Amino acid sequence: MSRFKPPLITPDVLLRAYSIGLFPMAETARDEEIFWVDPERRGVFPLDGLVISKSLAKTVRSDIYDVVADRDFQGVIEGCAAVADDRPSTWINNRIRELFGTLFARGQAHTVEAYRGGKLVGGLYGLRIGAAFFGESMFHRATDASKVCLVHLAARLVAGGFLLLDTQFITPHLARLGAVEIPRADYRARLAVATAKEARFDPWGAGTSVDGTTALSILKPAT
Question: Total structural domains in the chain?
Answer without folding.
Answer: 1
